[in-house]
Amino acid sequence: MIKSLIINPGSTSTKLGIFEDEKLVSEETLRHTTEEIAQFEKIVDQVDFRKGMILDFLAEKGEDIKSFNVIVGRGGLLKPIPSGTYAVTDKLIEDLKIGVGGEHASNLGGILAKGIADEIGVPSYIVDPVVVDELEPVARISGVPELPRVSIFHALNQKAVAKRYAKEVGKAYEDLNLIVVHMGGGVSVGAHTGGRIVDVFNALSGEGAFSPERAGGVPPAALVEMCFSGEYTKDEIKKKLIGNGGYNALVGTNNAQEVYKRSLTDEKVKLVFDAFIYQVSKDIGAMSTVLKGKVDQIILTGGIAYGEQVTSDIKDRVSFIAPVTVYPGEDELLALAQGALRVMNGEEEAKIY
Fold it and tell me: What is the pLDDT along the chain (353 residues), one digit of tens a residue?
């Protein structure tokens, strides 16, 4: 039995999971107030503060820190890397600290994992960070040489549900052609083949379907005019695209369930709800061409996949391509634990950053 401590830092919280193999023994979300976070100039400055809270929580639970066999952290904004479980090395820590891919709370995951693991002499890992990049060269080309397409998406959950489906049908993930659709605050649609995600709609910075908080693809010429109109600052434009876009801008809320309920009585909201279905389905259709129409399964996942009307409407549009499986939610703690287990059990080798 392998006992693991999983650490998933968010902007105002640190989610913890204690696992025995794949069994969740205990789960806790440590909340951090705005005032607590505000005392730190940079995200990396929060390490000691968050580590102290984690150790205090374990002590309160009566958990002997030395009883853990492995510590796993959420991967942060590193340089683009292939999918996998990565040993937390000094080089990886260095890039997380300097924010080589940007500053984000998830950068703390690997730092915290290694800090605790080193004290008790066990390995530390990160698993499938958002910068996982397995794109084919042809998928990187855009019409502007200075603006290549990049891979930033829900890699952890996409890989986890794809491997879950493969296991359930008794096939190797590497032998399947899958389209995985993660629907949360952002939406990412990925084409999986040969064990790689060879193309994906960037969930962060403006591709594909709009989502509760993202604008998705918008008319570029009109966006340029807006940028140079003098009416908005750079930060205001960014907020329109990431954070205040999508459902937020169109109907005033990022709550997908509320949007559905309002769509039952409000025609304008229904049009937005239908447009979301329409655009996600278009993205699935696009990824089917990446796989040359040879699609074994379409998988819908993420928080929005709890909505039965959403999944039913998407199935109605795309089931001619392939059967559809729904795995609602996003069990990141389990996905991180499973990534470490595959290495600890000898199913995979840990990658080196």
Answer: 999 999 999 878 899 999 999 999 999 999 888 788 889 988 999 999 999 999 999 999 999 999 999 999 998 999 999 999 999 999 999 999 998 988 888 999 999 999 999 999 999 999 999 899 999 999 999 999 999 999 988 999 999 999 999 999 999 999 999 999 999 989 999 999 999 999 999 877 779 999 999 999 999 999 999 999 999 999 999 999 988 999 999 999 999 999 999 999 999 999 999 999 999 999 999 999 999 999 999 999 999 999 999 999 999 999 999 999 999 998 889 999 999 999 999 999 999 99
Helix (H, G, I), strand (E, B) or coil at 3: strand
User: In whole angstroms, what separates CA 61 from the centre of its chain?
Assistant: 29
Q: What pTM does this model have?
A: 0.88
Two structure tokens written together for 3 = 């006992």
Distances (CA, A) of 300 to 221, 267, 318, 320: 32, 26, 11, 15
Between CA 193 and CA 201 the distance in angstroms is 15
Q: Check: CB of residue 17 under 8 Å from CB of residue 24.
A: yes
DSSP 173-194: GGG--EEEEEESSSEEEEEEET
Contact 152, 203 (CB under 8 A): yes
Phi then psi for residue 170, to 5 deg, are: 70, 30
Show the DSSP H helices in the chain as ranges.
34-38, 47-60, 90-98, 107-120, 155-168, 220-227, 234-241, 247-251, 256-263, 267-290, 308-318, 332-344
- State both tokens at 226: 């807006």
User: What H or E segment, with its residue span, contains residue 53?
Assistant: helix 47-60
Tokens 């960037």, residue? 202
Maximum alpha-carbon separation in the chain: 61
φ, ψ for residue 169 (rounded to 5)? -100, 5
The answer to whether the CB of 181 falls within 8 A of the CB of 168 is no
Number of neighbouring beta carbons within 10 Å of residue 46: 23
Distance from C-alpha of 11 to C-alpha of 19, rounded to nearest angstrom: 23
CA-CA-CA-CA torsion sign (139, 143, 145, 147) = negative
DSSP 100: T
